[in-house]
Amino acid sequence: MNRWTGSWMSGPRAAQEPGEAAGSAERRYRGERFGLPESGVGSIPSTARRAVAMLIDCVLAGLITALFTMPDLPRNWSLLTWFLIGVIAVSFFGFTPGMYAMGVRVARIDGSAMVGVPRAIVRTLLVGVIIPAVVWDYDYRGLHDRLVGTVVVRMR
After folding, report:
1. Strands (E), 1-156
2. Contact 106/131 with Cβ under 8 angstroms?
3. CA 30 to CA 36: how far, in whole Å?
4. C-alpha–C-alpha distance, residues 123 and 144, integer Å
5. CA angle at residue 15 from 33 to 7, to 5 degrees?
6. For the whole model, what pTM was predicted?
7. Which of 46, 50, 69, 94 is most buried (most C-beta within 10 Å)?
8. Average pLDDT over the chain, rounded to whole?
Protein backbone atom coordinates (compact mmCIF):
# COMPACT_ATOMS: atom_id res chain seq x y z
CA MET A 1 0.00 0.00 0.00
CA ASN A 2 2.19 2.83 -1.27
CA ARG A 3 0.34 6.11 -0.71
CA TRP A 4 1.53 9.55 0.37
CA THR A 5 0.38 8.57 3.86
CA GLY A 6 2.62 5.50 3.90
CA SER A 7 4.61 4.82 7.04
CA TRP A 8 6.56 2.01 8.64
CA MET A 9 3.28 0.09 8.77
CA SER A 10 3.17 0.07 4.96
CA GLY A 11 6.60 -1.52 4.63
CA PRO A 12 9.93 -0.28 3.31
CA ARG A 13 8.55 1.06 0.04
CA ALA A 14 6.36 3.58 1.87
CA ALA A 15 9.34 5.94 2.02
CA GLN A 16 9.14 6.39 -1.74
CA GLU A 17 7.36 9.33 -3.27
CA PRO A 18 4.26 8.53 -5.35
CA GLY A 19 5.31 7.49 -8.85
CA GLU A 20 8.87 6.66 -7.81
CA ALA A 21 9.99 3.38 -9.37
CA ALA A 22 10.31 0.43 -7.04
CA GLY A 23 13.70 -0.48 -8.49
CA SER A 24 15.16 3.04 -8.36
CA ALA A 25 18.69 3.56 -7.12
CA GLU A 26 19.19 3.39 -3.38
CA ARG A 27 19.73 6.71 -1.65
CA ARG A 28 23.03 7.10 0.13
CA TYR A 29 21.87 9.73 2.62
CA ARG A 30 18.77 11.62 3.77
CA GLY A 31 17.85 14.56 1.55
CA GLU A 32 19.74 13.31 -1.51
CA ARG A 33 16.64 13.16 -3.70
CA PHE A 34 16.04 16.89 -3.05
CA GLY A 35 19.60 17.81 -3.91
CA LEU A 36 20.47 18.61 -0.30
CA PRO A 37 24.01 18.11 1.01
CA GLU A 38 24.85 15.10 3.16
CA SER A 39 26.01 17.22 6.11
CA GLY A 40 26.38 20.83 7.18
CA VAL A 41 24.22 23.78 6.15
CA GLY A 42 21.18 22.72 4.13
CA SER A 43 21.28 19.07 5.19
CA ILE A 44 18.52 17.18 6.99
CA PRO A 45 18.79 17.72 10.79
CA SER A 46 18.50 14.99 13.38
CA THR A 47 15.22 14.27 15.09
CA ALA A 48 16.83 15.35 18.38
CA ARG A 49 17.38 18.90 17.04
CA ARG A 50 13.81 19.07 15.84
CA ALA A 51 12.42 17.73 19.13
CA VAL A 52 14.42 20.21 21.23
CA ALA A 53 13.25 23.04 18.95
CA MET A 54 9.64 21.97 19.53
CA LEU A 55 10.21 21.81 23.28
CA ILE A 56 11.68 25.33 23.28
CA ASP A 57 8.66 26.62 21.34
CA CYS A 58 6.22 24.97 23.76
CA VAL A 59 7.97 26.40 26.83
CA LEU A 60 8.14 29.84 25.21
CA ALA A 61 4.43 29.74 24.36
CA GLY A 62 3.61 28.77 27.95
CA LEU A 63 5.73 31.59 29.37
CA ILE A 64 4.27 34.23 27.03
CA THR A 65 0.74 33.09 27.79
CA ALA A 66 1.45 33.08 31.53
CA LEU A 67 2.20 36.81 31.32
CA PHE A 68 -1.41 37.41 30.25
CA THR A 69 -3.15 34.88 32.49
CA MET A 70 -1.36 35.60 35.79
CA PRO A 71 -2.06 34.67 38.56
CA ASP A 72 -3.86 31.71 36.95
CA LEU A 73 -2.06 29.08 34.89
CA PRO A 74 -2.10 29.45 31.08
CA ARG A 75 -4.06 26.21 30.56
CA ASN A 76 -5.06 25.72 26.92
CA TRP A 77 -4.43 29.35 25.98
CA SER A 78 -0.79 28.44 25.47
CA LEU A 79 -1.87 26.32 22.49
CA LEU A 80 -3.18 29.46 20.79
CA THR A 81 0.09 31.26 21.51
CA TRP A 82 2.08 28.28 20.19
CA PHE A 83 -0.06 28.21 17.04
CA LEU A 84 0.41 31.94 16.41
CA ILE A 85 4.16 31.75 16.99
CA GLY A 86 4.41 28.83 14.59
CA VAL A 87 2.29 30.30 11.81
CA ILE A 88 3.70 33.82 11.89
CA ALA A 89 7.36 32.81 12.29
CA VAL A 90 7.36 30.00 9.74
CA SER A 91 5.30 32.00 7.22
CA PHE A 92 7.64 34.95 7.06
CA PHE A 93 11.00 33.78 8.41
CA GLY A 94 10.99 30.01 7.85
CA PHE A 95 11.70 29.17 11.48
CA THR A 96 10.26 29.49 14.97
CA PRO A 97 12.31 30.76 17.93
CA GLY A 98 13.04 27.16 18.93
CA MET A 99 14.09 26.25 15.40
CA TYR A 100 16.37 29.27 15.29
CA ALA A 101 17.96 28.28 18.60
CA MET A 102 18.61 24.77 17.27
CA GLY A 103 19.79 25.94 13.86
CA VAL A 104 17.02 24.50 11.69
CA ARG A 105 14.43 26.01 9.37
CA VAL A 106 11.54 25.03 7.13
CA ALA A 107 12.15 25.30 3.39
CA ARG A 108 9.87 24.74 0.44
CA ILE A 109 10.87 21.93 -1.89
CA ASP A 110 10.03 23.99 -4.98
CA GLY A 111 12.71 26.53 -3.99
CA SER A 112 10.46 29.48 -3.15
CA ALA A 113 11.92 31.85 -0.58
CA MET A 114 8.96 31.95 1.84
CA VAL A 115 6.81 29.13 3.16
CA GLY A 116 3.74 31.40 3.11
CA VAL A 117 0.73 31.72 5.38
CA PRO A 118 -1.54 28.96 3.96
CA ARG A 119 1.19 26.32 4.08
CA ALA A 120 2.28 27.44 7.55
CA ILE A 121 -1.29 27.21 8.88
CA VAL A 122 -1.80 23.68 7.55
CA ARG A 123 1.66 22.59 8.70
CA THR A 124 1.22 23.99 12.22
CA LEU A 125 -2.28 22.52 12.60
CA LEU A 126 -0.96 19.09 11.64
CA VAL A 127 2.01 19.37 14.01
CA GLY A 128 -0.51 20.20 16.75
CA VAL A 129 -2.35 16.96 16.03
CA ILE A 130 1.03 15.20 16.63
CA ILE A 131 0.43 12.00 14.63
CA PRO A 132 1.35 13.49 11.22
CA ALA A 133 4.53 14.91 12.73
CA VAL A 134 5.81 11.55 13.98
CA VAL A 135 5.11 9.48 10.84
CA TRP A 136 8.25 10.06 8.74
CA ASP A 137 9.61 8.99 5.41
CA TYR A 138 13.28 8.25 4.68
CA ASP A 139 14.11 11.98 4.63
CA TYR A 140 12.56 12.62 8.09
CA ARG A 141 9.66 14.44 6.43
CA GLY A 142 6.50 14.01 8.45
CA LEU A 143 3.08 13.86 6.84
CA HIS A 144 2.67 17.56 7.61
CA ASP A 145 5.78 18.42 5.56
CA ARG A 146 4.85 16.06 2.73
CA LEU A 147 1.36 17.52 2.47
CA VAL A 148 2.51 21.15 2.14
CA GLY A 149 5.70 20.46 0.16
CA THR A 150 8.29 21.47 2.74
CA VAL A 151 11.39 19.98 4.33
CA VAL A 152 13.27 20.92 7.51
CA VAL A 153 16.96 21.72 6.89
CA ARG A 154 19.93 22.87 8.96
CA MET A 155 20.81 26.59 9.00
CA ARG A 156 24.27 26.17 10.53
Report:
1. 104-108, 150-154
2. no
3. 8
4. 5
5. 150
6. 0.77
7. 94
8. 84
